[in-house]
Amino acid sequence: MLPEAALETSVAGIFAAGDVMGQAVGSPAHAESPLGLRSVERGYSAPHPSIVEEMVVASPIDDSELRAAEQDLARALSASDRIAWVEHYTDDAVFVAPGVPAVQGRSALVEMAQSMSPLSSVSIVPLRTDMAGDLAAVYTRASWVTGEGTSERTESSVRGILVWRKDQAGTWRVAQELLHQDPDAEREP
């Protein structure tokens, strides 16, 4: 049987190598990475049996807890408590968005949250999910509104990668987030 540490190292290498972006959205529903992880858009990922002969995957990985964590994050981002969403990130989380310096750590996220305008109508839509053990990488489309009810109302739409890590208590938290402007949103009327 493959030691758990070796599997975690392999999975971390896959995420670090950018495998989660290896197939464009709209690619075949089942894509196989060079390292043997099966990815399913809006679906599951598990080690391919030819890579780990002794490991048996009896059923797809249940991603319902992860989907619930995404919805909890969206609600927290829309909450009147402007820092509520920070609890959904790990202590060592890294947040990267266009035009601003990277933010690292929960205390820096709190500072960022306090300086943000209130958000409303937050939506997080997972487009592709790769999961292995306590790690998940989700390619997502997200949108929100700032300045609701004012003349400065702005709608934002991004795509991004959220790397989620399940903590010792079994709670999924965002460990890394990388956002970029959604090119499709710029074309919409």
**CATH architectural type:** Roll
Instruction: Briefly note the CATH topology name.
Output: Nuclear Transport Factor 2, Chain: A
Content of β-strand: 35-45%
Number of strands: 9
Quickly give the structural class: alpha+beta
The helix-strand sequence is HEEEHEEHEEEEH
Largest sheet: 6 strands, mixed
What does the average pLDDT come to? 76
Radius of gyration using CA atoms only: 17 Å
Report strand order across the widest sheet: 5-4-9-8-7-6
CATH class: Alpha Beta
**Uncertain runs with pLDDT below 50, 5 residues or more?**
1-59
N-to-C span: 54 Å
Q: Compute the number of helices.
A: 4
Number of domains: 1
Share of helical residues: 10-25%
Envelope shape: globular
Overview of the molecule:
The structure is a single chain. By secondary structure, the chain is of the alpha+beta class. It has a single domain (4-187), classed as Nuclear Transport Factor 2, Chain: A, CATH 3.10.450.50. The chain is 23% helix and 37% strand. It is built from 4 helices and 9 strands. It has helices at 4-16, 64-78, 106-115, 183-187, and strands spanning 30-32, 37-40, 45-47, 89-96, 103-104, 119-132, 135-146, 154-166, 172-181. A 6-stranded mixed sheet has the order 5-4-9-8-7-6. The protein has a 3-stranded antiparallel sheet with strand order 1-2-3, with no helix packed on it. It is globular and about 45 Å long. Residues 1-59 have low confidence and may be disordered.
